Amino acid sequence: MKRAKFDEAAQETLTDCVKKIETTTDAELVLVVRARSGSYRHADYLFGALLGFAGLLFLLFSPFDFHQYWVAIDVALLFLLGSFVASRSNTLRRLLTGEKFRNEAVRTSAAAMFYEAGIANTNAEMGSLIYLSILERRLELIADRGVLKAVNALEWNQILFELRQAGRKPEPQTLLAGLEDLGALLAKHLPATGENPNELPDMPRFELK
Predict the structure, then answer these.
(1) What's the mean pLDDT in 4-28?
(2) What is the CATH number of domain 8-37+98-207?
(3) pTM score
(4) What residue ranges do the domains of the chain occupy?
């Protein structure tokens, strides 16, 4: 089955969802979807080194004869090839990095985005960031003080758990379902009063390159 993509149609659907949620609550949502939350060059170089080392072993122990100058050239070419292949593969980058590193990269990037996107600067402190990082298959939810004060901590932690589970399958439909559940929780504890202006963009921010 072909995996759904975060394309223009998905962006429109998610925008409509955010708009609908914000008609029922004073909270404001900002959705960010990123291809990755950090540089994985070290993973690319590691795979290149492994491929180069495998090539070196083959050249050294092969029953075939090779000119010596080909050894250095072949190893270098294999290193470059391996690095290029890894740079195009989320699977290889996940395999060659630790979960702790990936989670920390997402948390750091999400925290930076919370301020970069102006979510921390709303007048009523009602902003919330839903940040999905596709390579790491992780979702972070960061809310301003007004939201955290209003929502029951147990219910908040439950929705956070459910959203992170949705983030393990980074597709538009799973994200949409998680957003709707979050919207219902916000409407319950922070119903719309008509007094909180829309200070943040409704359209999701896709950074997929």
Answers:
(1) 92
(2) 3.10.310.50
(3) 0.88
(4) 8-37+98-207, 41-95
